[in-house]
Design a protein that fits this description.
Helix content is 28%, strand content 30%. The chain is an alpha+beta fold and 345 residues long. The chain folds into 2 domains: 2-64 and 160-340, Zn peptidases (Aminopeptidase); 66-146, Peptidase M42, domain 2 (Elongation Factor Tu (Ef-tu), domain 3). Strands 1, 2, 3, 10, 11, 12, 13, 14, 15, 16, 17 and 18 form a 12-stranded mixed β-sheet that branches. It has a 6-stranded antiparallel β-sheet with strand order 5-4-9-6-7-8.
Length: 345
Amino acid sequence: MIDLLKDITELTGVSGHEAKVRARLRDYVTPLVKSVRSDALGNLLAASGDAGGLKVLVAAHMDEVGIMARKIDDKGFVRFTTLGSLRPQVLLGQRVKFTSGLTGVIGAERLDDMKDLQLSHLYVDIGASSKQEALDAVRLGDTAAFQSTLEVRGEQIIAKALDDRIGCAIMIECMKRLPDRARAHNYCWAFTSQEEVGVRGAQVAAQGLAPDVAVVVDVTPSGDTPKGADSDVAFGGGATIKIYDTIPPLGGFVAPPGLTEFVRSVAIRNDIKWQADVLERGSTDAMSIHLTGSGVPCVVISVPTRYAHTPHEIVDRRDVEQVVRLVLAVLDEIDAAAIGRMFEI
């Protein structure tokens, strides 16, 4: 999986501009499924299994946070807006790479107090000496992402865009390992677009596919760093099972209690390490999927992650393996009865 992750995390593919990532994922997925296609919003959709069973959607988003050029000043510095949640303090001093391959460094206007730093104070230095020289290299609307390379440090994987290309890699690993007995269902695998700007691709994918149930694979903040997230989620604790999350005022996701209990029981039966996930700020593709059509029961299984939305996100390989095992076990054991019991508790 490391080679796959290195390949896809080092590509630039911010929200709405996932073409390079989508094309690379298509290369990996095509030999593993019956069919693969893209839809009007840029989701990559694959199908496998028996079309006669339950329609099970498995989803992970392929976009990453990034920036978009919005204005170029007379000296050739590129002013930008963000696509997804990015703090100015994280952006300052970072190297970014545009989809074209051009690189730049994010600088800031001089401030008396760096606590006052705002997005409007930042710019990208692409080495241009005039507005025209910059316009010859960057068009307004061009996008860029952090430039960072993957590194393995013991059990830890460090890379940009692990949110959520680790989920994409887990889906591909599940395609490879899916047991024959689990193929009685109709599996729809969605590598979704534009999650970071409002879970848009997942909404379109779910509307078009109309699944009976969905399994969303994403990341969630780990709470085991000094004064980190106010959460008991920890590296080495295994896969997380989502109970609740929210993004005020947009909404969020409340997991169906019975379906959550089913996933817990699957983890316990299969000796898979798991931990509960209650997230006070943030959400996943489930936020839109569960509201499509007549409603879609959703399960969210996540990888604990440190430093999300930075150039150097970190996950633990032991947790990644537990997520793979749990997703596979859920796909193997899910049935209409489990879905029917989702609100019993």
